[in-house]
Specification:
6 helices; binds nicotinamide-adenine-dinucleotide; 12 strands; Dihydrodipicolinate Reductase, domain 2; Rossmann fold; 32% helix; 2 domains
């Protein structure tokens, strides 16, 4: 099998750098044909990977799938490029607007895509457990408490909102609390509080490679899929 040609969008960020490193370690599976950064990159080629500025997006070479971990203002151009090229998109960018979510839904009629607030296997399982607990504990208070590093811009985190939606789908009213401290990669606690008792479901990510690895795995699975919007758990095995 030929290596999958990847475009990494948001390449200079924490996640972008993790993706480039992990893809580079598996060069039989992945070939990064374009690393896209917000500003004009210097140097233009690093470890054999060609870099492009966001303003040069229209001119990037052919790719099999794009992986986007940028910020909401970078989301529209990469979605538009994937639709124009008929290429799959994997995006982990959180904090996107309602309008951007609508555009994502529209794009899923023409390309295969995954937009997920969390690419870890543990959180996919946690969401299922939360849904189950919420339907088994009607009337209990449900709180999602999340902690992240001080550089994280959106709050509550996208993952907290996804977990809240999982509880909400079982009828719970959910409240959120966010902490920003030090270099915490990501911690989520979903707390169910009844009279005289409490259940806590907790996930701790200790390394951001877990998200990058998940995104690369999903990207590989998305190539050759029919157009549509897929969840991480649809593509796990
Ligand atoms: P970061 O701030 O380190 O990196 C963001 C990068 O995006 C920066 O390099 C920035 O220059 C780039 N960028 C911004 N606007 C751009 C544009 N218009 N065009 C191209 N690039 C642009 O952030 P990070 O920690 O790497 O996280 C990136 C995103 O991924 C955030 O939205 C974060 O919440 C999300 N995230 C998601 C998961 C997940 O599993 N879904 C995990 C971790 C982080």
């Amino acid at each position: 099998m030929n290596a999958i040609r990847l475009l990494i969008h948001g390449a200079s960020g924490r996640m972008g750098q993790a993706l480039l490193r992990l893809a580079g370690e598996q060069s039989d599976r992945y070939q990064v044909v374009a690393a896209v950064t917000r500003r004009t990159p210097s140097p233009r080629v690093v470890d054999g990977v060609p870099y492009f500025a966001a303003s040069e997006l229209a001119g990037v070479p052919a790719f099999d799938v794009a992986i986007d971990f940028s910020l909401p203002d970078g989301f529209d151009p990469i979605l538009a490029l994937c639709v124009e090229r008929g290429a799959p998109l994997v995006s982990g960018t959180t904090g996107i607007s309602g309008q951007q979510a609508t555009a994502l839904n529209q794009a899923s009629t023409s390309i295969p895509l995954v937009w997920a607030t969390n690419f870890s296997l543990g959180v996919a399982v946690l969401a299922e457990l939360v849904e189950r607990a919420a339907s088994a504990l009607p009337g209990w208070d449900v709180d999602v408490v999340e902690s992240h590093h001080v550089h994280k811009k959106d709050a509550p985190s996208g993952t907290a909102l996804t977990l809240g939606q999982a509880a909400g789908s079982a009828g719970a009213q959910v409240h959120y609390a966010s902490l920003r401290a030090g270099d915490i990669v990501g911690e989520h606690t979903v707390q169910f509080t009844g009279l005289g008792e409490r259940v806590e479901l907790v996930h701790r990510a200790t390394h951001r490679d877990v998200f990058a690895r998940g995104a690369l795995h999903v990207a590989q699975k998305l190539v050759d899929r029919a157009a549509g919007s897929y969840r991480v758990r649809d593509l796990l095995d």
